[in-house]
Write a structure and sequence with these properties.
elongated, about 45% strand, four-stranded antiparallel β-sheet, single chain, Jelly Rolls, 2 domains, about 150 residues, 1 helix, mainly beta
């Protein structure tokens, strides 16, 4: 049987409402997360494993990772360069630390038509990949990535 959600009483103090929001089973403050769908507030849903679900898809590993790895390529030029993680990552933060814009791609060759990463720009991607490809349209730059497992 599902638990009945606590409905706060606006006439009571904030502390009283917080005390009543305590989930005794988990010894945690119970918070309900709502999202606005453009018309109404809707409850955010989780599956039976406790993973956040979005429109029949599951958002995996958000903010919870076992380990990470940092890779760097200081010689990104006008030819496609590949920097590889030791294993497939679930998410990564990619930074252009050099003096020229570059273009990146994941597990496939980079061209000047793929995603542009400007000088000093960083990008966070919740994407599973192993190989980071990079290229410049002119000059050399440095690309650094921190991948999360």
């Amino acid at each position: 049987m599902a638990k009945q959600a606590y409905q706060p009483d606006t006439t009571e103090s904030t502390q009283t409402n917080l005390n009543r929001s305590m989930d005794a089973d988990f010894d945690q403050l119970a918070v309900e997360l709502l999202g606005y769908d453009g018309t109404d507030l809707q409850r955010v849903k989780v599956n039976t494993a406790g993973e956040l679900t979005l429109s029949n898809a599951t958002l995996e590993g958000v903010g919870v990772f076992d380990s990470f790895e940092q890779v760097q390529d200081t010689g990104v030029t006008t030819g496609d360069r590949t920097t590889s993680f030791a294993q497939q990552v679930s998410s990564a933060v990619i930074q252009n630390l050099g003096d020229n814009d570059c273009f990146i791609n994941f597990d496939g060759a980079a061209t000047t038509s793929t995603y542009k990463l400007a000088i000093n720009e960083s990008l966070t991607v919740p994407l599973k990949f192993t190989d980071l490809h990079a290229i410049t349209s002119a000059g050399t730059t440095t690309v650094q990535a921190i991948g999360f497992y």
